[in-house]
Amino acid sequence: MTLVQYSDSESDSEPRYSPRPVKKPRHDINPGPSLPPLPAAFHNLYASSTRVSVQDNPSLHGGRKRVIPHVEGNWPTHLYLEWYPEKGELSLLADVIAQCGYLPDENASTVHSLLHSDLGAQLPLHISLSRPVVLRTEQRVSFNEALRKAIHDSHVSSFNVQPDTLYWSSNFEKTRWFLVLGVQRPRHDALNRLLKLSSDTLARFGQPPLYASSSTREQNSASPFHRSSSLNSEDFSGCFHISLAWSLSEPSAKERERVAEIDLRALRNIHVGFDSVKAKIGNVVGSIPLEKSS
């Protein structure tokens, strides 16, 4: 016995169920943004790079070598200012990187972008306030407290910087070269002030500063910080930069010339805002707020 019976008058060619009405597409005259941006605190929950192996295996990291060997009880530490570019800014930065990339008719270096991960996720960019250093397990809490107090007592306010120059610069070990954006000196000299606070705090824990007046000049001879004759041991305005891409090979003279010829007018209109200092100890990122700018 069938569960549902139909009358003989119904045609087999007619559908036995009423078709579902098709909804008309909705057209918004003023469509809003697809998704709201993630809150700044979200990015502190997860480190942008995680350790895949405790062994130094360059094949896991695109040929990069570990700067600080893994030792039990040691915590790699980095102090920096973080920037997540907006969509339009990302497009401008990607275009600049593309202009510096590999050309088929040249034996040029392979350039790796720092804008996105291998899976396509956006990565934060940064201005460093320290080199990669090492803290011992027992130093982590006291270092974090000392740095927070120093920044709080300094009354440094949130500030903006604008990109200024583009050039290649190596790391301290000369194992990698970075395509970097130099930035203009911000109002109230905030970068130099934060660098001094970071360096003084690191020195209390036996760690070296990021920049030293003579060694920095020798190491970054290709950078434009020689443009100012007024630089002294306390002024490193020409050293601060934002890394955009990296290469394992030292750029040739022709590659450096190509970078120097890139039009940066659109990038110079970008205002990069900073309202906190990031302290990454191991894979834990702490955020130390700056005073609100009046």
From TrEMBL:
MF terms (GO), sorted A to Z: lyase activity; poly(U)-specific exoribonuclease activity, producing 3' uridine cyclic phosphate ends
Enzyme class: hydrolase
Keyword annotations: Hydrolase, Lyase, Nuclease, Nucleus
Entry superkingdom: Eukaryota
Localization per Swiss-Prot or TrEMBL: Nucleus
Cellular compartments per GO CC: nucleus
Any matching Pfam family: HVSL
GO BP annotation list: U6 snRNA 3'-end processing
Gene3D superfamilies: Cyclic phosphodiesterase
Role of this protein: Phosphodiesterase responsible for the U6 snRNA 3' end processing. Acts as an exoribonuclease (RNase) responsible for trimming the poly(U) tract of the last nucleotides in the pre-U6 snRNA molecule, leading to the formation of mature U6 snRNA.
Record family assignment: Belongs to the 2H phosphoesterase superfamily. USB1 family.
Name recorded for this polypeptide: U6 snRNA phosphodiesterase
Species of origin: Penicillium patulum (Penicillium griseofulvum)
